[in-house]
Amino acid sequence: MSKKYYSIGEVSEKTGVSVRTLHYYDEVGLLTPAKNEKSGHRQYEEKELITLYKIISFKSLGFSLDRIKELLKETNSTHSLLDAFQLQKEIMLQQMKSLEKNINTLNQTIELLKDKGEIDSTILMSLIYSLQTEDKQKEWLEQYIDKEALDQFYEKIDTKRDDINKGFVEFSEKLKELYGKPVDSPEVMALVEECYQYAMNYIDEDVMEVFAGKVEAEDLENLDFKQLQNIAPSPFTKEEEKWFDQVIEYYMTKYAEQEIDDSNEE
Amino acid sequence: MSKKYYSIGEVSEKTGVSVRTLHYYDEVGLLTPAKNEKSGHRQYEEKELITLYKIISFKSLGFSLDRIKELLKETNSTHSLLDAFQLQKEIMLQQMKSLEKNINTLNQTIELLKDKGEIDSTILMSLIYSLQTEDKQKEWLEQYIDKEALDQFYEKIDTKRDDINKGFVEFSEKLKELYGKPVDSPEVMALVEECYQYAMNYIDEDVMEVFAGKVEAEDLENLDFKQLQNIAPSPFTKEEEKWFDQVIEYYMTKYAEQEIDDSNEE
DNA sequence: TCTTGCACCTACAGTAACGTGAGGATGTAT
DNA sequence: ATACATCCTCACGTTACTGTAGGTGCAAGA
User: Fold this and answer.
1) Cα B95 → chain centroid
2) Which of residues 227-246 of B touch A (CB under 8 A)?
3) Which residue windows are coiled coil (chains A, B) (predicted)?
4) Which of B67, B156, B200, B208 could form a disulfide with B63 if both were Cys (CB 3.0 to 4.6 A apart)?
5) Residue numbers of A between 134 and 163 with CB closer than 8 Å to B
6) Residue A1: is its pLDDT beyond 60?
7) B96: contact with A, CB 8 A cutoff
8) Pick from B33, B29, B67, B72: nearest CA to B53
9) Residue A153 half-sphere exposure, CB side, CA atoms within 13 Å?
């Protein structure tokens, strides 16, 4: 035969794997060619080339070197290979989902930034965080709202993503501007009213009712809302939030009065 | 105020980031809270909590900590954020493509393993490698075949993936079995004929002609085929390949004779 | 008063899969 | 013989953490 061995350089050339990487594979016992006694140079035979191609193939499918070491021993048993591949596929599908979510969030954020220009970084963070944890938010909501109504709600939202994001940012900005004003000042009330009306565009009445009913029924003040806060941090400081709570409270009582008035008039 | 500072434990609890990781962020200068002079305990203020949420958000979008450190400084300039997000989106789209390719390969391999049971690991490797580098193969082919015909060809193939993979494996196995037999033995010739016919199911005549013409026209024996070998290693050993080359050569001369006979009879 | 436990601290080490570079030995062509 | 390419080993750097050991300060229980 013209040539029995390949030098490490040749192997690197042929396969595109760096010399250092071949050293490393030798070091960890993944691919251990014989060595020339005198020079210590590595001598790769054809069977090792084939093994290397197997390694490259497995690696390209996302397996770790440790896993590959096992798989190389088991390549005769096709059954364990099948298992490994199916598992690996599940893992990659998971990764796909996560990537899709990220791209989605990035798309929405990019649209928003293009549209709005400057955005308070805290508000932006809050939005991104919220978009990224939407699944968990939905899970949380499923405790209180039945899945069907929720699915419907999210479907509706899905078509108006960019509008809603913009609304969220704008209301947050305006609220931050008004922070500190008396809770019963007309500007504040006007904004809250506007905000409420805006939200009502997207929230079905039945969803609202179910939720309102639950809120009164359960004592979720402590435990559960804390969990939600963890899932979706607000864009406001503690101070702002305190003020905002008062605003809401005032608005609710006023709103309740008006409701009574309305129903009396009917 | 009831509470000015959060302890590291509280922050960890609130955000889900481990204490050790918070230590780490402090160490690398990503999030450096003040320290109590006496005890050395870290004291997180609300602004640092907000920063931490920003960090979490950016991290979930796939940014490195170094990049995040820069982004945190630039959060006021929305412009650089937009750039960063757009770049990040491109990166994630790339990753998506790569993942899709992997899942595709895994799916095909899984189907094949389910269908065939035992498969020679070298043949399997060759197939996987080939599936994973299909893009590069196509690029290589584009040098010789015009894109339109090629696209058409791949489209056709795409609908019959599993069949073709199975065919590839079976012909490879059979060829390996026959290795060593005389190149003009009837079994060998029958297999090659069968293989040729099988391939013709998928290769359009015009593609074949273009390619055949090119093969004669150019001297791509050396440079370019080496490149292809790098892209798609064969499932055969050097010895087997040598033998196979002879088989093909013999087949081609025989085929050429037959062609002449055929045209004479017409 | 002792000690137990808890939350916190620092500091060192280890992970995966290499990249990079130093310093020296070997192979090959002229 | 000399130049130059190629190879060797050794060892540190990278990313984003995680683990562990040994030590401090403080509050509650025996």
Assistant:
1) 11
2) 230, 233, 237-238
3) 82-116
4) B67
5) none
6) no
7) yes
8) B72
9) 22
Structure tokens at B143: 């040098």
pLDDT digits 0-9 by tens, A61-116? 999 999 999 999 987 788 889 999 999 999 999 999 999 999 999 999 999 999 99
pLDDT of B76 reads: 74
The separation, in Å, between residue B178 CA and nucleotide C21 C1' comes to 51
**Alpha-helical segments (H) within chain B:** 8-15, 19-27, 46-60, 65-74, 78-116, 121-132, 134-142, 147-158, 161-178, 186-200, 205-217, 223-231, 238-265
* Closest Cα in chain B to A88: B106
Asked whether the beta carbons of B141 and B150 are under 8 A apart, the reply is yes
Judged by CB atoms within 8 Å, which residues 75-94 of B form the interface with A? 75-76, 78, 81-82, 85-86, 88-89, 92-93
**Are residues B125 and A54, on separate chains, in Cβ contact within 8 Å?**
yes
Residue with tokens 């040598």: B242
What is the model's pLDDT at position A259?
Answer: 62
Spanning CA of A66 to C1' of D21, the rounded length in angstroms is: 29
